[in-house]
Amino acid sequence: MEKIVSKLLIYGDRPKDTILMQLAAVFEDLHSGNYNKEDLVSRTYKQVKRLLVLGTDNAFDNNLWHNYLAYLLVMDENPFSLCCEKVGSKDGSVNHFAINDFHEFRCLFDYDFSEIEEKLGIDCFSCLTNYKAIEKPELMYNGNVSEKVRALSTALEKASSDEEFFNVITSFYKNIGVGEFGLNKAFRIREKKDGKVAFAPINNMDKVVLDDLVGYEIQKKKLIANTKAFIEGKKANNVLLFGDSGTGKSTSIKAIVNEYYGDGLRMIEIYKHQFKLLSQLISQIKNRNYKFIIYMDDLSFEEDESDYKFLKAVIEGGVETRPDNILIYATSNRRHLIKETWKDRRDVEQDGDIHRSDTMEEKLSLANRFGVTIGYYKPSRQEFYDIIKVLAKRSGIELEESVLLAEADKWELNHGGISGRCAQQYINHLAGANS
Q1: Domain match, 320 and 395 both
Q2: Residue 289 in contact with residue 324, Cβ under 8 Å?
Q3: Count of H-run helices and E-run strands, the chain
Q4: Are residue 175 and residue 192 in the same domain, yes or no?
Q5: Is residue 205 part of a domain?
Q6: How many domains does the chain have?
Q7: pLDDT in tens, 115-171
Q8: How big is the CA angle at 34 (ends 31 and 37), to the nearest 5 degrees?
Q9: How far apart are CA 268 and CA 197, in angstroms?
Q10: What is the reported pTM?
Q11: Same domain, 223 and 359
């Protein structure tokens, strides 16, 4: 194995603490003949345990060793894989080196572990290559990652030549992507010590789709139109969804990401205290082959906060043009995002001057940076009833309509008033009581 790994060029620059490099070191010591058996068994088991943890976290199955190798190929963001993600596999000298690497990966896929098992008296690799995963709820792992890696693993197993192996993996890069962005829909961020941004996938993102949001057809139509233009490479605007709480603003954005993930749409959620990272965040994703929505939930600023000025410059108005693959979608309960007071109007001219005060203009200018503003308002009583009836039917709740709606009236009085969220909570309560 150590000889195979040493021949990797494009995919060979790996940290020494990775599973593959640690196993290569084990085989190197084994073949030297100068080793302590108990120590080598311990080192082997440590890496096998890491493979089991990775397999459990991602629900890998059948051949855990093949799944791991496929996972390595998917996650390796090198110049070749990133180029394939962007433009596909074009003719070029680099393909020669890539095919050489894929030849070595085919050798790893077919590697015979019988030698190490016989010399060390272990059978762990036989178990890994005939692995049976424990069934568990999908919420315990990222089903999207698991499904794609296992499918790729199976396709690579069937590749009968280096060229076919090359075609399988480069097609995956072009159609799905590379690294975390290729496998996941949504992310949160954190600042690293070097000032760069680290992306943490959101594994348990709500699977809601737009049809799950009852009503608000005009609002959904506007959001879909802007998003479709964005993913098709046409001109599109930043979007502000404002209005009453519980009306489906955040749900609409999650649904949009779910529906257009297959078209390369990704979401990065950022909080107000992270606005200082926006410039670095944008610089790290502007050249990727995805369309990114930077999502700001429940965005608002108090009168004495000045962070909105920085956000305003980043959205539009700074020296650097916003990349075409990035939009900002924000939700807020405030139409203008920033708290307004009567004193903001004190410098309005009293003689009929048509210009608003400078203070008010400064605050309103942030909301004006969003080219599309969509209002989500509390439903009327009849619209609330319509939502209740649709949700009850979807959940299989069989109650006489008069009883269903009478109880809904009682529920909303004690749970924040009429809203789509309140309706969903009421239906969840009924479904739980009847289960």
Answers
A1: no
A2: no
A3: 19, 7
A4: no
A5: no
A6: 3
A7: 999 999 998 888 888 887 766 555 555 677 888 899 999 999 999 999 999 999 999
A8: 90
A9: 11
A10: 0.77
A11: yes
